[in-house]
Amino acid sequence: QVQLVESGGGLVQPGGSLTLSCVATGFTFNTAAMTWYRQAPGKEREMVAAISPNGVTSYANSMKGPYTISRDNAKNTVYLQMNSLKPEDTAVYYCKTNLPTSRGRRDYWGRGTQVTVSS
């Protein structure tokens, strides 16, 4: 059973930093690309950053610089380090993977972790 469990969210002041974690179980983690998304109140879910099985990264244009995605295949964990946080970074952050199944490829999502940036 595929499971993605995010953690590390919380309340942080503007300019602060947080590192989110997503622990994956139920599949061969080191063969799967992983992606972080976020959804702010009243807005659509948007992609933040992605990382390939061997560590090649990509970012949404607006996320380059203050965000860093990384993974530890030995720990089945993907991370999102967020620096210089702004109130507009307030959102629920989700990790996602896309895996092959007997019926074709399928997206799997975690339940998300809330990040609130406020003074």
Secondary structure layout plus pairing:
Layout: E1 3-7, E2 10-12, E3 18-25, E4 34-39, E5 46-51, E6 57-59, E7 67-72, E8 77-82, E9 91-101, E10 104-109, E11 113-117
Parallel strand pairs: 2-11
Antiparallel strand pairs: 1-3, 3-8, 4-5, 4-9, 5-6, 7-8, 9-10, 9-11
In short:
The chain has 119 residues and is an all-beta fold. It contains no helices and 11 strands. The strands form 2 sheets. Strands 2, 4, 5, 6, 9, 10 and 11 form a 7-stranded mixed sheet that branches. Strands 1-3-8-7 form a 4-stranded antiparallel sheet, with no helix packed on it.
Please give a structural write-up.
The protein is mostly beta strands. It is built from no helices and 11 strands. It has strands at 3-7, 10-12, 18-25, 34-39, 46-51, 57-59, 67-72, 77-82, 91-101, 104-109, 113-117. The strands form 2 sheets. Strands 2, 4, 5, 6, 9, 10 and 11 form a 7-stranded mixed sheet that branches. A 4-stranded antiparallel sheet has the order 1-3-8-7, with no helix packed on it. A hairpin with a 4-residue loop joins β7 (67-72) and β8 (77-82). The protein is globular and about 45 Å long. The termini are far apart.
Give structural attributes.
119 residues, mainly beta, four-stranded antiparallel β-sheet, 55% strand
* Proportion in helices: under 10%
Helix count equals: 0
- Taken as a percent bin, the fraction of beta residues is over 45%
Runs in which pLDDT lies below 50 for 5 or more consecutive residues are none
What would you report as the Rg, rounded to the nearest angstrom?
Answer: 14 Å
On the 0 to 100 scale, the average pLDDT is 96
**Count of β-strands:** 11
| Spatial shape | globular
Quaternary structure: single chain
What structural class results from the helix and strand content? mainly beta
Order of helices and strands: EEEEEEEEEEE
